[in-house]
Design goal:
The chain is of the alpha/beta class. Strand 6, helix 9 and strand 7 form a beta-alpha-beta unit. The mean pLDDT is 94.
């Protein structure tokens, strides 16, 4: 599954889901993951919104899913929690099948093997519900094995339900990324994945490591294990879009095109979150689609959206990507 063309990823799941459930997501300790249990129809509809607007890739709504979270906030037992994670993956497959049926009935061609269903594997910090996925502070006191053991339960539930790859995403610290990549290489040698870091500016991860150093460390680790082909891409998500180009230049700016590390990017809309007033500044945001050519030039193979990006934003990104892919073919 080496990526030959630039692919369109979906947008902010919790953001688009508000179209179906209203603004009851933010502030919930389970965030959008509660609806996997309480409103599965809304999960399917949200996936469908993105597919109908041109997404090649949908991520399962498992970012915030954890056994601990479901046991505490939904009063499920361990096995029920794991089954809910599996079932969440199945909801994405139901949406995919509905979409393919729609395309078939409308005589629309869909590329073989698409759309892809990729499991969202959010960071250890997300289940702590203390904002630490945006600081990575737990890297200073939680041992790597404890983090990978925690991830393993969710990863296995997603793999059992069937996914095309894993999106290891919003990772705030180099240690967690390295530990996960080592675990995947050792224990799940056939599983494809990408790694997307959470960055606080145009140079550094949330926890303070340099993005280029962390990405190169992952790429080198994969090279040592002869496993670079398992990694679809390395990149960033849930960041301000203005940080992306400098981050990518720091990694691929000096590399020849055929030596570029394949990159993944799905930033926020550019709005800024304020605890009192919520999301601010939509009217000043540069449309994400405008950035597509420069990001693709720097090696982006997957481009989509994160917080505050809707299905319509993905449609515009998709149009920009199709134009880019056409130009690349012509050249």
């Amino acid at each position: 599954m080496g990526l030959t063309r630039v692919l369109v990823k979906d947008g902010g799941f919790g953001t688009q889901m508000t179209v179906h459930v209203g603004n009851s997501v933010d502030g919930d300790p389970l965030w959008s993951a509660r609806f996997n249990a309480t409103n599965p129809a809304a999960i399917i509809s949200t996936h469908l919104d993105f597919l109908q607007n041109g997404a090649d890739i949908i991520l399962t709504n498992t970012y915030q899913s954890s056994v601990e979270g479901y046991m505490e906030y939904l009063e499920l037992d361990e096995e029920q929690s794991i089954e809910l994670i599996r079932n969440t993956v199945r909801l994405a497959h139901i949406a995919k099948e509905r979409y393919l049926t729609e395309c078939y009935q409308a005589q629309l061609a869909v590329p073989e093997g698409y759309p892809l269903v990729i499991a969202s594997i959010g960071p250890y910090g997300a289940h702590l519900h203390d904002g630490s996925e945006y600081t990575g502070s737990y890297a200073d006191y939680v041992p790597a094995k404890e983090i990978t053991d925690w991830h393993r339960v969710r990863i296995e539930a997603c793999l059992e339900a069937g996914v095309d790859a894993l999106a290891i995403e919003t990772i705030p610290c180099q240690m967690e990324a390295e530990a996960l990549v080592e675990m995947l290489c050792d224990d799940y040698p056939d599983v494809k994945f990408w790694v997307a870091f959470q960055c606080k500016d145009e140079n550094t991860l949330a926890h303070g490591e340099t993005f280029a150093d962390a990405a190169n460390a992952i790429w080198d680790l994969l090279a040592e294990r002869n496993a670079q082909d398992k990694c679809l891409a390395i990149g960033v998500n849930c960041v301000h879009p203005k940080f992306v180009t400098p981050l990518f230049k720091s990694l691929n700016g000096e590399r020849e095109v055929d030596e570029q590390i394949p990159l993944v990017v799905y930033p926020n809309s550019g709005e800024v979150y304020d605890v009192v007033n919520g999301w601010q500044g939509r009217e000043h945001c540069v449309p994400l689609a405008n950035y597509v050519p420069e990001w693709a030039q720097l090696g982006a193979k997957v481009i989509g959206g994160c917080c505050r990006t809707y299905a319509r934003d993905i449609r515009h990104i998709g149009e920009a990507i199709r134009n880019w892919n056409k130009l690349k073919k012509l050249s």
